[in-house]
UniProtKB/TrEMBL annotation, chain A:
Similarity section: Belongs to the SDA1 family.
Name of the protein in its database record: Protein SDA1
Disordered as annotated region, ranges: 507-593, 671-756
Native source organism of the sequence: Corynascus novoguineensis
Ranges annotated as spanning the membrane: none
Pfam families: SDA1_C (PF21638), SDA1_dom (PF05285), SDA1_HEAT (PF08158)
From TrEMBL, chain B:
Entry's family note: Belongs to the IPI1/TEX10 family.
Limits of the Pre-rRNA-processing protein Ipi1 N-terminal domain: 131-234
Protein localization: Nucleus
Biological classification of the source: Eukaryota, Fungi, Dikarya, Ascomycota, Pezizomycotina
Xref: InterPro entries: ARM-like, ARM-type_fold, Ipi1_N
Keywords of the record: Nucleus, Ribosome biogenesis, rRNA processing
Record field: compositional bias (Basic residues): 1-11
Protein name: Pre-rRNA-processing protein
Chain segments carrying region Disordered: 1-26
Pfam family, one: Ipi1_N
């Protein structure tokens, strides 16, 4: 029998997708149809609600489809569908545990869709989804809700920061964490906060506050979530930023493809998209870097927080957290102590118990102890700890790794508080550089070089070294007392000042040349300089001529007079002079005259810094000058390395690896380690062998043969030798004939006559 | 040289004996095949085709599940036919009860196959009318879903079922929660007489054809039938209640006797969600008339007038409707 031909319209009749398409095209004409479906949806909803658990699969399917249709066109018929969002919310709230999986997903998806169509607002969506997220036992639903919540928050913050919404959600999270401190529900608060922090959507103090509360929870998981955030959240954020800037479009390639390929609308669109992306990238590159404080800096009342953390989770003997968790918490507490220079005296006596080589993860404890030390910790609190480390770890009998770790830990502590050391102990420890183990030697030498810089009196004379001895004799190296702070100053400010004076002089001379009347001009210039120069606040204007202002000329000292005379010799000489001058100023020699000059210089510096306001232009110039003069190198002998070290640890914290590092010196790595090292960061492969071998294996597995070249290469030498010999014996005519034949053949497409 | 050496080695390998080692498992043979397997569930590929004729109750249940789950239209129809037979036999065999049959089979109301739907009607007709009464609300939900279904065939078949329902349980149909207003709503939507939706379009249109429809043509027959069923529905709603004969014991019976009807206090809606105007119960004629007057009279009268003008079958149906209205409201 011939199959009956079904008219196209008849066939699609019961097709909701088609109806949706038509409604979208012409909502006015299909209002009636939509109303029908709305009624059908309503009836189906009632069927479903009357017995949600026993609803037949067909009913569920029908309801699913109708929800889908209504959600997609709800924005076109706002009057009819007013109750729709509330119905969905109610359905989800009451039956999320028993709903069919697909239907549940559809309802969540529809709510998000309604949010995207602006039928409901973000707050109502999130306040619906959030309670379900923390209460549902279904893993799939949780992950779905989590992604939806995150994406909605991202979306609503994409154009401008939606402060109101953020505040609402942060309050919800804060309440979640604080309301029931024993439950694991706080996990979700930490997860959401961490994700949004990572994406730089939340960057202020409030999310930090949420995390702070999470850290003070009673539930181990929640606490660890919070602690990990503070320890690693900022790094994560930076990494994400780097990653996002990595993805690049090769515009040249896209352009070239546009040339060689057929021109279609799709390709045109792709090209435009790539162009847009590049522009966006450029814009982002030139945009000022967003000023993001690290979470550790944004904590309100760090002293109280650190004390609470310590007392609640560490000092409390009833606490049953695992050792790893406790170590993480300890890391956070000590990090806070080191960073904010907090004082928690009981922390140090708490450490005593754990400072034995048999303690699990003892290097982490050592690292934490070093982290917790800063220059405002009383030395007599740390001294017993240092002595304990020395007694427990450092002896001839102990293993070399242990001794190396012990000495290194002592060095890290002493780096932050040099006063914690006694003379005898130090001399004893320094003697370990005579040890046989390389790690111990290096650690001991590190300790010695540290004390050469910070407190050479403690060392025996023969270990002090030249620089320190000289410095001691000159009285330049002076031991700072407990609590004494380094005087603040701006590195290289004297260079800036000199530069400014030079600029002024240049200007004056130019004017003098122009008018021939120097004295008069000078007076005028002085009066001009007092005026406010608004250009200075723009860093972008690199016009160095404009940096003449803001200086009180009367403060010029007489030292500059000779420089004035030299000025006439020309620019090159001038610069040389500068370069010579700079180290002389900094590297204080034993000459008394130089010392006096330095003193005068110091006075002058303080004046410049205190009497004028440095404009951004000035600061930019200062930076430049500093670089030119390689000031760091000249200055850096003593304090630079130390400062660098401390800076590094303030940024990154100290880890167990740092403590263990010297023990690794001089150790030979095994083959497995080397292979693991080589394999790191590369795509996984089952065996470590050459790429060539891998390619062969792959071809073999595919049942493919070798190439002709490979065959030729492998061919038995004796088989080829005859031909080679014959070739050598050919006459000139023969050779030319073969060559011609070769050319002719290649023109006609080779032996196989390809394309011929 | 390399390749020949390699080949030699490979050849040798075939005849080498595997060395046994103390404390190690015996090496597996080259042709060893691992036959162990793991599986979360056991899949039976074939079902047993032997039916157990001995137990009619089991067979009934099997057919009931077949009627819903079978993939093929014919299977479903046959299963329904079997159920019809069982129900209409003397004495009727219904091991699961009317309620279960209804809950199971109602989703078939919007089944894709026409033969299944007609067979469903037969099943329903075979059910004892007295036992349908308590389930009217549920049946009505499906009917309303079917009345606004996209497919016209399903719509018209649903009207058949509504007719059946009016026959067996007319009073319950119009007085159950949502039974009056919501059904009227569906009717008006079906006929395109809805005052809220698309009225602007109707007034502007130059044709008297009441509505733009999706796809198929809607013949006057379909519309006439819809009007006809609407008239029946209204008749059921406006039927004058028979005065209950005086019963001197009624007062005391009300107070002390257990009520004879299922859910006698349903109108109080003690445990359900609060109802709006559409979902409300309209238990007596007066309240139905009042709400009809307020909400639907204008729209339906207008629709009826225009239908009358069309004449033909539609006009005649409209006249019936007019009569029903006049009788009910007058």
């Amino acid at each position: 029998m011939v199959k009956r031909k079904v008219a196209a319209l008849e066939k699609v009749e019961a097709d909701l997708v088609n109806l949706q398409y038509k409604i979208r095209r012409d909502p006015r004409s299909y209002a009636q149809e939509f109303h029908d479906q709305w009624l059908a949806y309503d009836a189906q909803r009632q069927i479903f609600i009357s017995s949600p658990t026993t609803a037949s699969s067909e009913d569920v399917k029908k309801f699913h489809d109708l929800v889908d249709l209504v959600a997609h066109v709800a924005d076109l018929y706002p009057e009819i569908t007013t109750p729709f969002p509330d119905q969905l919310k109610e359905l989800l709230n009451q039956h999320h545990a028993t709903l069919d999986k697909e239907l549940r997903e559809k309802v969540v998806g529809s709510l998000v869709l309604l949010r995207r169509k602006d039928v409901i607002d973000s707050t109502s969506l999130l306040t619906t989804l959030f309670p379900i997220l923390i209460s549902t036992p279904s893993k799939t639903l949780r992950s779905l809700l989590y992604t939806k919540i995150i994406s909605d928050l991202r979306e609503s913050n994409s154009k401008t920061t939606n402060h109101k919404l953020n505040r609402t959600i942060q309050t919800v999270l804060h309440n979640l964490v604080t309301s029931d401190r024993t439950s694991t529900k706080g996990m979700w608060a930490t997860r959401i906060t961490r994700e949004l922090w990572r994406r730089q959507i939340w960057t202020d103090a409030r999310p930090c506050d949420v995390m702070k509360e999470a850290c003070l929870s009673d539930n181990e998981k929640v606490v660890i979530g919070g602690v990990r955030f503070f320890l690693g959240g900022d790094k994560e954020r930076e990494e994400l930023e780097d990653e996002s800037s990595d993805e690049d479009v090769d515009i040249k390639k896209v352009k070239h493809q546009g040339v060689i390929n057929k021109k279609t609308k799709k390709r045109q669109k792709a090209y435009e998209k790539a162009l847009e992306k590049i522009k966006k990238h450029e814009r982002k590159k030139h945009a000022p870097h967003p000023l993001n404080f690290s979470a550790l800096h944004l904590i309100h009342d760090p002293q109280g927080f650190a004390e609470q953390l310590f007392q609640k989770h560490l000092q409390n003997t009833k606490n049953k957290f695992s050792l790893e968790s406790k170590l993480l918490i300890l890391q956070l507490v000590t990090r806070l102590v080191g960073l904010h220079k907090l004082t928690i005296i009981s922390l140090y006596s708490w450490f005593v118990r754990y400072l034995t080589p048999k303690q699990l993860n003892v290097t982490s404890f050592l690292a934490s102890l070093a982290q917790a030390t800063h220059n405002l910790v009383p030395p007599d609190v740390i001294e017993p700890l240092v002595v304990k480390i020395a007694n427990e770890f450092v002896s001839e009998a102990s293993a070399s790794e242990v001794a190396a770790a012990g000495i290194n830990a002592i060095r890290e502590v002493a780096l932050r508080q040099p006063l914690c050391m006694t003379e005898t102990l130090l001399q004893d420890l320094v003697m370990y550089q005579k040890s046989k183990d390389k790690g111990v030697v290096m650690a001991a030498k590190g300790l010695q070089s540290l004390y050469r810089e910070v407190y050479p009196e403690l060392l025996q004379k023969k270990y002090r070294g030249k620089q320190a001895t000289m410095g001691l004799r000159a009285g330049e190296i002076r031991q700072r007392q407990f609590g004494e702070e380094e005087e603040g100053g701006i590195e290289g400010i004297e260079l800036l000042e000199r530069y400014k004076e030079e600029q002024k002089r240049k200007k004056q001379e130019e004017r003098a040349l122009n008018s021939g009347d120097t004295d008069k001009k000078e007076d005028n210039d002085d009066s001009d300089d007092d005026g406010f120069n608004s250009d200075e606040w723009e860093v972008a204007s690199t016009d160095s001529e404009s940096s003449g202002g803001w200086i009180d000329v009367s403060s010029e000292s007489e030292d500059d007079e000779p420089a004035k005379k030299k000025r006439r010799k020309g620019d090159e000489e001038e610069e040389e002079e500068d370069a010579e001058d700079t180290p002389a100023l900094v590297d204080t020699s034993t000459e008394a005259g130089a010392a006096a000059a330095a003193q005068a210089e110091i006075n002058r510096i303080s004046k410049l810094a205190t009497t004028t306001i440095l404009t951004p232009t000035d600061l930019a110039k200062l930076e430049e000058l500093r670089r030119e003069a390689k000031l760091d190198k000249a200055l850096g002998r003593s304090s630079k390395r130390k400062k660098e070290l401390i800076d590094k640890h303030i940024e990154d914290g100290l880890t167990a690896d740092d403590i263990e590092l010297p023990a690794l010196l001089g150790k030979k790595t095994t083959k497995e380690e080397r292979v693991a090292l080589a394999r790191e960061g590369k795509p996984a492969r089952d065996e470590h062998k050459s790429t060539q071998a891998i390619r062969h294996a792959k071809k073999d597995a595919e049942g493919k043969s070798t190439t002709n070249r490979e065959k030729a290469r492998k061919k038995n030498f004796l088989m080829t030798i005859g031909k080679a010999r014959a070739k050598n014996k050919r006459s000139l005519v023969e050779t030319s004939k073969t060559m011609r034949a070769h050319i002719a053949r290649s023109k006609s497409g080779g032996r196989r006559r390809n394309g011929g | 040289m390399g390749s020949s050496n390699k080949k030699k080695k490979e050849k040798k390998k075939d005849f080498q004996k595997a060395k046994l080692k103390v404390g190690k498992a015996k090496p597996k043979a080259a042709n060893f095949t691992d036959t162990s397997f793991k599986s979360k569930s056991i899949v039976v590929n074939q079902q047993t085709l032997v039916t157990d004729d001995s137990d009619p109750a089991e067979q009934f249940k099997q057919n009931l599940s077949l009627a819903i789950n079978a993939k093929s239209d014919n299977h479903r129809r046959d299963a329904l036919a079997y159920i019809t037979n069982q129900l209409s036999g003397t004495p009727p065999n219904n091991p699961v009860g009317t309620s279960a049959v209804l809950t199971k089979l109602l989703p078939l109301l919007s089944d894709g196959s026409a033969s299944v739907r007609t067979q469903l009607l037969k099943v329903l007709r075979a059910l004892p009318p007295a036992e349908v009464g308590p389930h009217v609300e549920k049946v009505l939900m499906y009917i309303r879903g079917g009345m606004t279904h996209l497919s016209n065939d399903i719509r018209s078949d649903t009207l058949n079922i509504l007719e059946w329902l009016l026959e067996v349980a007319g009073d319950e149909t119009v007085s159950c929660p949502g039974g009056w207003m919501k059904t009227l709503n569906s009717f008006s939507s079906m006929l395109g007489w809805n005052p809220n939706v698309g009225s602007a379009l109707n007034s502007k249109g130059w044709t008297s054809s009441s509505r733009a429809t999706l796809g198929t043509k809607r013949g006057p027959e379909a519309q006439a039938r819809q009007i006809h069923v609407l008239a029946k529905f209204l008749q059921a709603g406006f039927k004058p209640e028979a005065p209950t004969p005086y019963n001197p014991m009624a007062y005391w019976g009300n107070i002390y006797r257990l009520p004879g009807t299922p859910s006698p206090f349903a109108y109080l809606n003690l445990f359900g969600t609060p109802r709006d105007e559409d979902n409300e119960m309209y238990p007596d004629r007066i309240s139905r008339q009042r709400i009809f007057d307020a909400k639907w009279r204008v729209a339906i009268t207008r629709g009826m007038e225009s239908a009358k003008k069309e004449g033909g079958t539609v006009g005649r149906a409209a006249a019936t409707l007019d009569k029903a209205l006049a009788a009910g409201l007058g």
